[in-house]
Amino acid sequence: MGLHHLTWRVTASGLEDEEIIAEAISVLIGDEELVDIERTSSYHGSHIHLISASTKRNKVAVNSLANLGSECLDELIDTLDARLDESNTIHFRLSLDELMAGNVKIVESNVKSIKGYTKLEVYPGQSAKEEANKILNSAKNISKF
């Protein structure tokens, strides 16, 4: 049972404070060294910041999922059918505004959000959904929230 990787990413406008967003993501991933800020320009020339954090270490990834809290993990478990794709990746979004206020809330794509996705290790004979349930429940068991 494991994860290949876990990634958090968000695109912020040049008007937003990318350092505050990066700090919120570092709390999620559990290590500020894993956070990367790329400053660039959009197609139309305005400044944007691509902020991401990623890990390939299973323990760090599971702990990051645990930082979502029991309520969000329960929501992910309940909606796995819609979130798990054919490449065994779980997709979800967190409200950016809520996260910067210290709260974690899963939202739909029409809200300013941080995109999270994690790829499961699934071997022949295993069910991706069962593995996802095991991992999310494991994260739930170590969650402090």
Give the topology.
Layout: E1 3-13, H1 18-29, E2 35-41, E3 47-55, H2 58-66, H3 70-78, H4 80-83, E4 89-95, H5 96-100, E5 113-120, H6 128-142
Antiparallel strand pairs: 1-3, 1-5, 2-3, 4-5
Helix pairs in contact: 2-6, 3-6
In short:
The protein has 145 residues and is of the alpha+beta class.
What does this molecule look like?
- This protein is α+β, with helices and mostly antiparallel strands.
- The chain has one domain (3-142): 2-Layer Sandwich (50s Ribosomal Protein L5, Chain: A).
- Helices cover 37% and strands 29% of the residues.
- It is built from six helices and five strands.
- It has helices at residues 18-29, 58-66, 70-78, 80-83, 96-100, 128-142, and strands at residues 3-13, 35-41, 47-55, 89-95, 113-120.
- A five-stranded antiparallel β-sheet has the order 2-3-1-5-4.
- Strand 2 and strand 3 form a beta hairpin.
- Helix 2 (58-66) crosses helix 6 and helix 3 (70-78) packs antiparallel against helix 6 (128-142).
- 27% of the residues are buried.
Which sheet architecture does the biggest sheet show?
5 strands, antiparallel
- The helix tally amounts to 6
The name of the CATH superfamily reads: Ribosomal protein L5
H and E order: EHEEHHHEHEH
C-alpha end-to-end distance = 23 Å
Core attributes:
145 residues, globular, alpha+beta, single chain, 6 helices, 50s Ribosomal Protein L5, Chain: A, five-stranded antiparallel beta sheet, 29% strand
